[in-house]
């Protein structure tokens, strides 16, 4: 342990830590653009300058190792003057177009400008223009004018994702972030650079102009894209900002998905499939119970299910939905005791998707595999067992492969096939309930309810106790 | 390109195997000698040859002003316009060259003989004004001296 003084406060730090890290850990705010705890130190933005006793000039605290007895001041008049000057320099050619910038409201540059900058620019020169709104990739819009060349995105592709697809080309005021002309920016983790960017230079094409961020709020959820079960934030509209003019759909939309920092599972990162979680959830839902193809109420559907069970001699359940641990427990204790349970994998690698890597993406694309295997083992459906009633709890099941049994389908999304099940019961998605998943390593991860479920949709967990006569 | 790769191989043999990225600049220079100017596809070629990320080569290529990224003439004239040379009349000499060659700064004559560039300090302040024609320095320049130099060029 090393003891040093920051702003007259005694701070304990570990050997090898920097002054910036020690300060942030002790709740002392030192502004920083280019520093990021998961990336190498670049030391290029200069906003983190501090005064160190015994040193003639101000020093960037992100690149200053702690030393015993060091005395650091972060809020003297000369430090504040340096910050003002750095802000002048960084915003010299910044277009100041916060009014049309998606980043506004969660922009480090905007926040620091208010806190540490000056109202007016000292420059009388016209702003130097750089390329605006270019497609860095089909997913990301790049605005070089807003960029402050902190190199966070570049370092991310070099140090975290390893694609090396971004760089800073040219020099001086011509310097800009760019990809190679002939090669796409198709890094499967590319969307992380949007959140890393301390200003509005890198924006999500999907979220572009969809909403002001201050109308939204994050809800902690879990990505169901693979067996990693990464923590995510699902951004919904705040209750007080539900307005009639938007209509029901936009008031109840998941606007975007960003990583939720979870050191045990995904750190601060997420793969692009995770960033697309809300788009997968926006697929056409199963919303109305159907008895033999005819619309019915949820209560009628439950009665019909009971009738089918009473008439069945040899029922089975085919389980592999993105079922939470709580739902699986309810299933095991209810219906699961009385029927034959089969397991299957609903989701497989899609064309164009990364199958597996040594970072986050897992080959098993099913979030509940670990728990289902722990409870029911690995038991593929056996047509030879001649079941006369099969409950499908999940998606993408070929009805014809189930050998003419009566079918009850518990589905969150509209089934793709042409034929209808004898009974379709719509069940909630992970956005409509809370619970936990256990990932492939056995780590439990929690998700919260983002939206209330629609009226005629049931929670599968509530259903299992009611189905058995 | 195969002949170029042989030259690459000879240079590479002089470097320790783990220092591939130290070869980026020497190879860019070699390639420019061969081709006159360099494009992104040349950066990709060097990256593939060395097994380093292509972006790293492109960054080096675009950062250094001594790499030409547009076609240049047979003789590249670089006139220093930094402080010492400017005080000694570099602007006047640039004007003289512009008038004589009929091209502006950054341009190449129609016959492909000359490219005229204004550059930052050539580190020849003691003998200002200076210019560089291809790899040769010419110092203490006057209009007459420039005319003579141009006439002697092939």
Describe this structure in words.
The complex is a heterodimer of chains A (469) and B (154). Chain A has helices spanning 19-25, 77-90, 108-116, 152-160, 192-196, 247-251, 272-275, 277-281, 298-311, 325-333, 369-376, 460-467; strands spanning 2-6, 9-13, 49-52, 59-60, 71-73, 134-137, 140-142, 166-169, 176-179, 202-204, 216-222, 231-237, 256-259, 290-291, 294-295, 315-319, 340-343, 389-393, 406-411, 423-426, 435-438, 444-447. By secondary structure, chain A is α+β, with helices and mostly antiparallel strands. Chain A folds into four domains: 2-90, Roll (Ubiquitin-like (UB roll)), CATH 3.10.20; 125-204, Alpha-Beta Plaits (2-Layer Sandwich); 213-281, N-terminal domain of TfIIb; 290-467, Rossmann fold (3-Layer(aba) Sandwich). In chain A, the strands form six sheets. Chain A has a seven-stranded mixed β-sheet, covered by helices on one side. Chain A has a five-stranded mixed β-sheet with strand order 2-1-5-3-4, sandwiched between helices. In chain A, a hairpin with a 6-residue loop joins strand 3 and strand 4 (59-60). The longest helix of chain A is centred in the first third of the chain and has 14 residues, at 77-90. Chain B folds into two domains: 2-63, Orthogonal Bundle (Arc Repressor Mutant, subunit A); 75-152, Glutaredoxin. In chain B, helix 1 (2-12) packs antiparallel against helix 2 (24-35) and helix 2 crosses helix 3. In chain B, strand 3 (131-133) and strand 4 (136-138) form a beta hairpin. Chain B has a four-stranded mixed β-sheet with strand order 2-1-3-4, covered by helices on one side. Helix content of chain B is 46%, strand content 12%. The interface between A and B is medium-sized, with 14 and 11 residues.
């Amino acid at each position: 342990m090393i003891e040093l003084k920051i702003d007259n406060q005694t701070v304990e730090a570990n050997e090898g830590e920097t002054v910036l890290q020690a300060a942030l850990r002790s709740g002392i705010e030192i502004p920083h653009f280019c520093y990021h705890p998961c990336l190498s130190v670049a030391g290029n933005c200069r906003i983190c300058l501090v005064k160190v006793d015994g040193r003639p000039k101000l020093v960037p605290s992100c690149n200053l190792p702690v030393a015993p007895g060091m005395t650091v001041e972060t809020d003297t008049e000369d430090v504040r003057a340096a910050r003002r000057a750095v802000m002048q320099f960084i915003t010299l050619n910044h277009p100041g177009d916060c009014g049309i910038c998606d980043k506004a409201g969660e922009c480090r540059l905007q926040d620091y400008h208010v806190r540490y900058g000056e109202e007016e620019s000292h420059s009388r020169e016209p702003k130097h223009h750089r390329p605006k709104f270019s497609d860095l990739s089909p997913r990301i819009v790049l605005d070089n004018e807003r960029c402050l060349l902190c190199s966070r995105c570049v370092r991310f592709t070099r140090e975290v994702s390893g694609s090396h697809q971004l760089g800073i080309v040219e020099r001086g005021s011509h310097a800009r972030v760019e990809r190679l002309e002939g090669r796409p920016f198709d890094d499967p983790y590319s969307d992380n650079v949007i959140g890393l960017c301390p200003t509005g230079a890198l924006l999500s094409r999907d979220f572009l102009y969809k909403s002001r961020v201050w109308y939204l709020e994050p809800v902690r959820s879990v990505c169901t894209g693979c067996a990693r079960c990464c923590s995510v934030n699902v951004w919904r509209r705040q209750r007080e900002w539900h307005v009639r003019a938007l209509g029901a759909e936009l008031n109840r939309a998941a606007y975007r998905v960003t990583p939720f920092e979870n050191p045990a599972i995904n750190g601060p990162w997420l793969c692009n499939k995770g960033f697309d979680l809300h788009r997968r959830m926006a697929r056409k839902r199963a919303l109305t119970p159907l008895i033999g193809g005819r619309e019915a109420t949820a209560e009628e559907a439950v009665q019909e299910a009971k009738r089918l069970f009473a008439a069945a001699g040899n029922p089975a359940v085919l389980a592999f939905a993105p079922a939470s641990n709580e739902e699986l427990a309810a299933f095991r204790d209810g219906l699961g005791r009385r029927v034959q349970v089969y397991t299957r994998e609903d989701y497989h690698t899609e064309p164009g998707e990364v199958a597996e890597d040594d970072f986050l993406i897992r080959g098993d694309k099913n979030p509940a595999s670990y728990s289902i295997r722990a409870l029911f083992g690995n038991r593929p459906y056996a047509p030879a067992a001649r079941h006369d009633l099969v409950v499908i709890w999940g998606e993408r099941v070929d009805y014809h492969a189930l050998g003419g049994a009566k079918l009850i389908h518990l589905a969150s999304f509209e089934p793709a096939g042409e034929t209808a099940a004898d009974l379709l019961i719509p069940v909630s998605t992970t956005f409509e309930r809370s619970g936990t998943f256990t990932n492939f390593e056995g780590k439990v991860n929690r998700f919260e309810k983002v939206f209330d479920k629609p009226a005629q949709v049931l929670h599968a967990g509530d259903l299992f106790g009611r189905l058995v006569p | 390109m195969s002949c170029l790769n042989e030259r690459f191989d000879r240079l590479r043999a002089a470097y320790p195997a783990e220092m591939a990225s130290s070869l980026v600049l020497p190879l860019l220079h070699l390639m420019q000698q061969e081709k006159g100017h360099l494009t992104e596809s040349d950066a990709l070629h060097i990256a593939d040859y060395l097994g380093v990320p292509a972006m790293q080569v492109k960054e080096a290529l675009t950062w250094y002003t001594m790499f030409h990224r547009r076609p240049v003439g047979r003789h590249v004239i670089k006139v220093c316009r930094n402080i010492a040379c400017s005080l000694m009349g570099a602007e006047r000499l640039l004007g003289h060259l512009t008038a004589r060659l009929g091209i502006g700064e950054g341009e190449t004559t129609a016959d492909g003989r000359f490219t005229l560039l204004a550059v930052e300090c050539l580190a020849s302040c003691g003998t200002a004004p200076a210019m560089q024609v291809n790899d040769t320095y010419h110092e203490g320049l006057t209009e007459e001296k420039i005319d003579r130099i141009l006439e002697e060029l092939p």
